[in-house]
Amino acid sequence: MSVISSWNLTISLNTTISLSWRSSLPSRASFPRPKKPKTLVVLATALGAKPTVLVAEKLGDAGIQLLKTFANVDCSYNLSPEELCTKISLCDALIVRSGTKVTREVFESAMGRLKVVGRAGVGIDNVDISAATEHGCLVVNAPTANTIAAAEHGIALLTAVSRNVAQADASVKAGKWERNKYVGVSLVGKTLAVMGFGKVGSEVARRAKGLGMQVIAHDPYAPADRARAISVELVSFEEALTTADFISLHMPLTPATSKMFNDEAFSRVKKGVRIINVARGGVIDEEALLRALDSGVVAQAALDVFTEEPPPQENKLVRHENVTVTPHLGASTTEAQSLYHLLDYLIWLLPFSLPLPSIGFIALYYDQEGVALEIAEAVVGALKGELAATAVNAPMVPAEVLLELSPYVALTEKLGRLAVQLVAGGSGVKFVKVTYASARGPDDLDTRLLRAMVTKGLIEPISSVFVNLVNADFIAKQRGLRLTEERIVLDGSPEKPLEFIQVRIANVESKFASAISNSGEITVEGRVKDGKPHLTKVGSFGVDVSLEGSIVLCRQSDQPGIIGKVGNILSEENVNVNFMSVGRIAPGKQAVMTIGLDEEPSRDALKKIGEITAVEEFVFLKL
Ligand SMILES: NC(=O)c1ccc[n+]([C@@H]2O[C@H](COP(=O)([O-])OP(=O)(O)OC[C@H]3O[C@@H](n4cnc5c(N)ncnc54)[C@H](O)[C@@H]3O)[C@@H](O)[C@H]2O)c1
Ligand SMILES: O=C(O)[C@H](O)COP(=O)(O)O
């Protein structure tokens, strides 16, 4: 019994990072479950009051209970689109299944409050992902908990069509006894083409092999070794169509798979093929399927999913005598939807004092967290500002990379904040260059998170927009901000990921002229020292101040007594100086004094600093 270990990282709004460890047993599904800690995303969010989670479709009780430990939970099912839009502005998170369309209007109606959409299941085709991203709303799903349920339903439909179970049942219930009419076809030795060899598809394949079928699969993105491991041959779309006796669909609905099964595809299938769809209705052109059924090209179809759900009463496919239908039941088993947790079973087993190996076996078999728990964990984690393993619309940063980069995450955001506050007028920022100096090779540094944090730092002080890893690139583009990145490869030890980071803003004037470097750009540079972000350069002046609280930058003609005068003004106001450094061009010439402050000084105190005779210019910057 192997144990999956996981690291969870937390980044809160002030970008402090915490690390916790958890372990869990592998799930019953043999398709590798995403190792939560390996792929993570930052959702920096700060929620003062208890957040509100709207659960818009039935969710297992285990999930509801978990949500209630952290949030106010509003379970309102069967909301009309208008009702959903009305409610959403009062919610921080929304949990749906496939029955709720989370449209652009929903995100617009949320007016910035909605931070997470949790899809309690796999398919995210009912969520407008672009709109979510534009609104900085993280979308998470529960990709593994219903895999087995869906695969079993696929097999149930496969066996049902081969033996006319639904039709024969209806006939007997209608008082008939038609033994000759419902002669079926055998599965053994027949070829099954699994279209989409992902989690569900591979579980269907495994089960079909157990029924004695020849299994082939078509999936342009599936790794060959996964197929080889269960002796399934990966084939082209053409070969799948032309050789299969049964076709089972398991791909997602995307623009590429939409109506993949159309007249053209049906013109190439083996006459009498049987089709099972437990994926999404939209992957089949339903009109084309009807024609293929009527002409006998397709002998039978079993459909769990439809383009429109529920399908209209008059839908000819639903009423077709060679079509077996179920109302999107693929994920609907008690085990998939609710909690069958390892611990419950271990506790249940205790009185039996079973030997350890059998406990292990049973525990492994029943380690089904259920969709409800999987999505509740993801949503609560995201609301806490933790990192979501199942994020759909944000780049994933491996946990170990994130841990190493954490102080640089804080540094980049603060450099962005400082740089933009140095711009005269604060706006008009269009060209930003971020330079990363490192002894590591260019492929050895993932800067996506750092870039997002510079954007956050640049935009948040001058707008009301909430920027996070989800929407940083979109917001930058929308505001016409061109952020370019540059790498400087230094000699030395690659132990540290970065030596220094520089943020430059071109084509702007500065309210602190000394911040303009020789290249004519506002320039701030920082390093991480003892795990803390430090400002180490402003313009062409070397400085050194820890980036916390706020900062006063002050240029003076280099002479004795200035530090004392500034210190006096601040101490009269009870403002604590946490750090001070002076960087000068040459003794007796100009110097830039950097003062780190714990409290914000009054306007009056700042005015007094400006009035010190030797002070040529100064600026107060909030971090
Ligand atoms: N009926 C239900 O209740 C139910 C339950 C669970 C999943 N589903 C649906 O089943 C589908 C598969 O779910 P999963 O968990 O296995 O997802 P998955 O992401 O693990 O697998 C999908 C596979 O489809 C493949 N694919 C993508 N484009 C393809 C194409 N053009 N041709 C062939 N293959 C392609 C991908 O490479 C991937 O391997 C999804 O549409 C999901 O929404 C339905
Ligand atoms: O994509 C999925 O997970 C399935 O279609 C399940 O959908 P459901 O949560 O509405 O049952």
From TrEMBL:
Record flagged with keyword NAD: yes
Pfam name, any one: 2-Hacid_dh
Record flagged with keyword Nucleotide-binding: no
Domain named ACT: residues: 551-623
Catalytic activity line of the entry: (2R)-3-phosphoglycerate + NAD(+) = 3-phosphooxypyruvate + NADH + H(+)
Molecular function GO terms recorded: NAD binding; phosphoglycerate dehydrogenase activity
Enzyme class: oxidoreductase
Keywords: NAD, Oxidoreductase
Highest taxon above the source species: Eukaryota
Enzyme Commission code: 1.1.1.95
Pathway connected to this protein: Amino-acid biosynthesis; L-serine biosynthesis; L-serine from 3-phospho-D-glycerate: step 1/3
UniProt GO cellular component terms: chloroplast stroma
Sequence similarity: Belongs to the D-isomer specific 2-hydroxyacid dehydrogenase family.
Name this protein carries in UniProt: phosphoglycerate dehydrogenase
